[in-house]
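Good morning C.,

I know you're traveling, so I'll keep this short. The sequence:
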Amino acid sequence: MTTIYEVAKLAGCAPSTVSRVLNDHPNVSRATKAKVHVAMDKLNYRPNTVAQSLASQHTQCIGVMVNELGSSFFGALTSAIESTMRQHGKHTIVTAGHCDADTEKKGIEFLIDRKCDAIVVHAEAVSDSYLIELIKRDVPLLIINRVIKHYEHHCISLDNTTGGVIATQSVIDKGHRAIAYVSGPLNKHDALERWEGHRKALADADIDYNPLNVVETLFTKQGGEAAFETLLKRKAQFSAIVCGNDEIACGVMSAARRAGMSIPQQLSIVGFDNSPIATCTYPTLSTVDYPITQMGQHAAEHILQTVYAEQGIANERHFEPQLVARDSLVVYQPDGAC
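The tokens, ready to paste straight into the viewer:
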């Protein structure tokens, strides 16, 4: 294999200069960099990344653990992290936890064993105590969508409770009083917080909370379809349905149409996430924006700043949700109520 010494000889410089070029050191002239790169190309030289890691104490690689890989939501998150890191010459390893505590732990330990310089985690099933243990082990950990008390500086989060309030308040503001709610799994903290926000909005408007109008389901289109069927079987009365995420809302839309209901004339629907699918439904879906792309960018920027000492990078830890009003939400019409 070609060595750094052969590259230095061909380029007419010292091996230390080649090393500085490989590490993109600023104190190397453009002409010298060009000569070194020409020599590397001629000799087909590939840097020894293991040796570079030992020298710099960095692998130039970060890890990301998310719930699923096939979701547009997590695709947006991982894409934002990867593209931001790549712009700074870093690489990204991604694994999935599938909302299972053991699988999430194995995924995180896999990334630790790969000597990732930092790890971004969007975990649902592992406990706060496990994540705290990792932090105490000096694992450079950044947690998305969860706030751990006393460890807020390791967290990037969205106010899901406020998001739940905003979603339900949006239908109340349109005159709806008979409101159904389809929640994601309430053992997940984000689903629980959004449901709590729903209840708060009802209480603030003096609307009684009716358990018959609430269905817990999976964060999927199929879950939304099944939840709507459950509401019909219960003979629940509603003119609007607030959903725990956009996929649930799409399922509700499909099932409502099969039941012969017109949207939004007979039924207003609001989702949560503002995922790409929200603009592809008919009518387009009113939803609460979850700025997951921006959160991914800020996670990457935080790592660049704290791990790689990059300067002049913005760093935001807490995001506020906002309503994105579209065509699935209209003013309540008594004659059109379910």
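Safe travels,
E.
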